[in-house]
Amino acid sequence: MSELQKIDCHTHIVNREIYSQYCRSSGCGDYALVMEFLPHMAKENMPDKSWSLCDGSERLFLCPSVDIHGDIPKQLKEIEKKMLAHPGSRVVGLKIFLTYQAGRADDERMSPIYDFAEKHGFSVTFHTGLPSLHLPNDYDMDGSNARYVKNVALKYPAVNFIVAHMDDPRYDACLQLMHDVPNMFTDFSGAFEPGTKVAEDEEGTIAEFSHAIHQFPDSYKQIIYGTDFCPPILLSEIEKYDDTIKKIFEEKQFRDIYWHTPLRAYPKVAEYLKKKG
């Protein structure tokens, strides 16, 4: 698999130190999407410099976060201003921290986000399911359920929606909801966080992922590669995701997981790479 190009669709490479650690890691992606943290998630050892880091980078793409408890239209206008101020930041989507913030994807007040995404050709990535052990959160597990994401995916067929973390631990239901909804995608990024039940039983977890994915023969076409890389919150595994992919998928499907499906899930990435040649 080493010869395959890889787009890491879910990282929190939010500053230069984390980026350096990522680049030094064996098996890191050729390109990576940076999910900006919400301001209140910042830690002393984890300053978020996503905009300046991504500006002009050849390998990084940016997904700014939206605080769903704040003034959403105001934040979207601010993102547009930052895009003008940082023309090389290569914004490709938006990140919404469900579970961490109480709320549902199909709440009416979220509609401006999806209108904005449709206007700019952005994809929308949701945190779904269990949260990190190392970030403040509202623990709104029901609100982050993938069934609410499906509602907006059907309402906005021109926008791609990524159900990050396969709605942990609702894996089977997640894939069932996504089936035959072509603008929904998922990953199993962040799976190996130390101290979690998932990390304590890696083989059992991989078996659960496999069972969920193999409910339908074409589910692999909606799976994207992501690692959730962010050492300050103990997310530093990369090779384990390659090992997991080897255990779940056929070799002929690897290029889809690492490259073709990410380009479909994030069409702005494909647009930027096409310009690059």
TrEMBL record:
Kindly give the Pfam families that the UniProt entry links to this protein: Amidohydro_2
Q: Has the keyword Lyase been applied to this entry?
A: yes
Q: Spell out the molecular function terms from Gene Ontology.
A: carboxy-lyase activity; hydrolase activity
- SUPFAM superfamilies assigned to the protein according to its UniProt record, in alphabetical order: Metallo-dependent hydrolases (SSF51556)
Residues forming the Amidohydrolase-related domain are 88-267
Residues spanning the signal sequence: none
Q: Which InterPro entries match?
A: ACMSD (IPR032465), Amidohydro-rel (IPR006680), Metal_Hydrolase (IPR032466)
Q: Which residues cross the membrane?
A: none
Q: Which UniProt keywords apply?
A: Lyase
* Source organism, top-level taxon: Bacteria
User: Do you know which PANTHER family this protein is assigned to?
Assistant: 2-AMINO-3-CARBOXYLMUCONATE-6-SEMIALDEHYDE DECARBOXYLASE (PTHR21240), CATALYTIC_ HYDROLASE (PTHR21240:SF19)
The protein here is known as Amidohydrolase family protein
Q: Which organism is it from?
A: Anaerofilum hominis
